[in-house]
Amino acid sequence: MIPTVAWAKEPAPGKAVTDMAPSAKSAILMDADSGTVIYQKNSNAALPPASITKIMTMLLVMEAIDEGRLKLTDKVQASEYASSMGGSQIFLEPGEEMSVEEMLKGVALASGNDASVALAEKLGGSEQQFVAMMNEKAELLGMKNTKFVNCNGLPAEGHVSSAHDIAIMSRELLKYEGITKYTGLYQDYLRKGSPKPFWLVNTNKLVRFYSGADGLKTGFTSEAKFCLSATARRDNLRLIAVVMGEPNTKTRNAEVSHLFDYAFAQYTNVPIYKKGDPIGTLSVEKGKVDRIPLTAKHSYSILLKKGDAGKGIRHELVLDPNVKAPIEIGQPIGKLVVFRGADVLTEFPVESPMAVGRAGWWTLLRRTTGHLFLSD
Question: pLDDT tens digits, residue range 90-139?
């Protein structure tokens, strides 16, 4: 459930809401924490996303790092295929090695098509297998108007996404807080200390010129025109703005800045939980452990108009009844529901923070007899 908030002033009957991104083919403005949509225009139109595709590539890399399947210090060797990519690149030589972190910088700042393929091959074994992982993740996230054909966004028939879907995967990427360490850089170097250091300059100029901007990804092809998924944070409010099909970079950046300006002026975030806060306990039937402590995986908050005191806001953890082992890590186990009075404002999915295997008969017997002796 992704809520949508009403505009500050509803349009008069028969009049359209002001178009805040008039030059874009499609656009969306979203609160990153709650997922609330503030503004949208043709946001479900399936369009070529160009290099914004690399948000999914970075998401799968950050997910692998978080799960311990990949380290920032791991070496990535560029194949001849990866080195052959055209367009934006960091000019990898066949056989050249860089760390995952260096490759990630090459993707985040320079939009390196070659670095994207090198990372894809490292994680998936081949770009084709990695693309299958991308599409699987898109389906899990509910990205209904997205189909990936490659990992970098180079023109390919049937390679499409939508502003709404891009906002969803941008929001997911931002859950890995370390990513803005790279996407928020304006410039850096690769091959430091070598005879040929390579200067990286972020293709997203908003990270230098817009207060609070620290990502995420630009895109351009002659077919897609100028695209951008941008994020900015001020105080406790983080926004995501996506525009697609803009005529030039100046218009693209101006319209995204206008979307940000509007939301920062009009809205604020009311926190429910901070990352790491305890939120409840899950009881597990027939598990090796019978109770799982639950903590906030990321910050939970709701978006309100400035001046709204947030009176009557309450929340409730609703867990699935009779959860039985085995449980996989990340398995959906319930939701955090936020109410105002009797009205549901938003819902956040809650997942298991750990895997729980099925207990053996001896463990279950001891647990049962222990409860008998402890009972009155």
Answer: 999 999 999 999 999 999 999 999 999 999 999 999 999 999 999 999 99
CA distances from 346 to 3, 172, 208, 350, 367 (A): 6, 17, 33, 13, 38
Q: What is the rounded CA–CA span in Å between residue 79 and residue 96? A: 8
For 248, the token pair is 């030039």
For residue 115, give the 3-state DSSP assignment: helix
DSSP annotation of 325 = S
Residue 193 burial by Cβ neighbours in a 10 Å radius (0-12, 13-18, 19+): exposed
- Please give the structure tokens belonging to residue 167: 């906002």
Retrieve residue 34's tokens: 């709650």
Measured from the Cβ of residue 113, the count of other Cβ atoms closer than 10 Å reads 27
What is the SS3 assignment for 275?
coil
Other Cβ atoms less than 10 A from the Cβ of 57: the count is: 29
Which stretch of DSSP H or E encloses residue 99? strand 97-99
| Alpha carbon distance 31, 302 (integer Å) | 9
Calpha distance 140→321 (Å, rounded): 23
Half-sphere exposure of 272 (CA within 13 A, CB side): 28
Instruction: Tell me the CB-side half-sphere exposure of residue 119, using CA atoms within 13 A.
Output: 38
Closest CA to 216 of 243, 194, 236, 198: 243
171-197, pLDDT tens digit by residue?
999 999 899 999 999 999 999 888 888
Question: Is 0.85 surpassed by the pTM of this model?
Answer: yes
DSSP 184-216: T-SEEEESTTSSS-EEEE-S-THHHHSTTEEEE
Looking at the annotation, which residues are catalytic? 51, 54, 111
CA atoms within 13 A on the CB side of 258: 17
CA distances from 93 to 78, 86, 89 (A): 7, 13, 11
Paired residues of 343 in beta bridges: 340
Looking at residue 58, the DSSP 8-state letter turns out to be H
Residue 331 to residue 328: CA distance in whole angstroms: 5
Give the DSSP per-residue string, 116-166: HHHHHHHHHSSHHHHHHHHHHHHHHTT-TT-B-SSSS----TT-BB-HHHH
